[in-house]
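Worked example

This section walks through a single chain of length 134. The input is the sequence exactly as stored; nothing has been trimmed or padded.
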Amino acid sequence: MQSVYESLITIDYVDAIANPTDEKLRLVPADPYLSAKCRYWADKVNRECCSPYYGVLVRTDEQERKENFDKLVTGLKAFSREMEKNGDARGFLGGGRLSNTDVALMPWAFRYYIFEHYRGYTIPVDEPELHAYK
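Given that input, the structure is written out below as tokens.
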């Protein structure tokens, strides 16, 4: 039995074994430039928007929680700026369709509401810097 570890590597693996014939169904674009851009942003989103998630929830020191939350919001702002600059009208970086970047962020972004419930933090989605993320 073969095992694949780490979420970003697993996304690439699933895309490779599915091997969709329609380019629009791929999670990792076939175009080398788009592929590199999406892999870069998937890694960046993972480090700056997903990893701090745990720090907000599991740290016992309030200052450490706040630092992780601020890091997460800073990462979302960077992602939002990239979306404003290079995303499409539908909100995707991968050439007009869902990509590995989106799949990396979605499970975490979908659960950001937990911060308010358990920690009293709210993602400031009304800030202009988060317009594209919203």
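What to look for: The chain has five helices and no strands.
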